[in-house]
Amino acid sequence: MISFVAARRSEDTGRAPRLNVVAIAILAAFVVLGLIGLRIAGNPIPLVAMILAGLVLMQSPQIARQWERAVVLRLGRFVGLRGPGLFWIVPFIDNVSSWIDQRTITTSFAAEQTLTSDTVPVSVDAVLFWLVHDVQKAALEVQDYAQAVSWAAQTALRDIIGRTDLTELLRGRERIEGELQVLIDQRSNPWGVTVSSVEMRDVVIPGALQDAMSREAQAAREKQARIILGQAEMEIAHSFQEAAKSYQQNPVALHLRAMNMLYEGLKEKGALMIVPSSAVETMGLGGLLGAAAMGRETLAAGGDGSPKTE
Q1: Is residue 116 pLDDT above 90, yes or no?
Q2: For residue 175, what are the CA distances in angstroms to 121, 159, 200, 268?
Q3: How many Cα neighbours within 13 Å face the side chain of 199?
Q4: pLDDT digit string (tens) for 271-299?
Q5: Which residues does 271 contact at the CB level (< 8 Å), separation at least 6?
Q6: How many CA within 13 A on the CB side of residue 306?
Q7: Do 292 and 271 contact (CB within 8 A), yes or no?
Q8: Of 14, 12, 142, nearest to 83 (Cα)?
Q9: CB-based contacts of 120: which residues, under 8 Å, 6+ apart?
Q10: What is the pTM of this model?
Q11: What separation in angstroms does the CA of 111 have from each of 99, 121, 125, 290?
Q12: What's the rounded Cα separation, in Å, for the pair 123 and 207?
């Protein structure tokens, strides 16, 4: 489905009747002259003649807005472009066939349920920004340039979607927008139209496929998290291996480390530390633990190192 409301509104505005102050002034002047003739002659013939002449001549002045160009035909043949501002035509001989808007026009268009190259139905909504750079071609080379541009945009969008897979369509919007602009511009240039830019507003895929892609993304994240956790475990194991080699060559450092571990475990009152039996044997933690326990009993008994008496 195509939407070209903005462009059609511009065309309809151009075809509306155009009254201007110059035409009204001409008609008013002829009416005044007719009233003067009526007073002098004493019959309505001069008034009727002046009113008819005013109605004819008031069609001659035309006013084009700053952004408009008027296409003038004389007895059906193109004679030129007029505007902006005031210009004159010959009544009943010349006529303004169309008023061309040269501002940037926005046209929304869409491709619904179009298959991608990997056979996924998608609906794409986009906006086209374009303008008329050659008024004569837009007026003479195509019947309705606004509708032609809209159809060209839709067919180009369907063409691009048909040769693009879903992943590329979702991730490569900038590239697709560039290709669309070039393709539409090539088709519309012979009509005097230049495409400024194309922007894709939305890409809609089926709900079931959205759920599947969500589950796939979640599984990929979980896999990556587990890989990172495994790498961390490998690094920790490697660090422990290096530390074991250092302690094997330096027993004093091993005992200092054991004392530090004991201190960290017992510095909080009521702390409980579980030490493997192998560590007690290899690092001499048995004596250290015993000394620490005796120190705690002494502090509990007297507080100053003396035995507690009753």
Answers
A1: no
A2: 20, 14, 11, 63
A3: 8
A4: 565 656 555 555 555 555 555 555 555 55
A5: 265
A6: 3
A7: no
A8: 14
A9: 165, 166, 205, 206, 209
A10: 0.61
A11: 30, 10, 7, 82
A12: 12
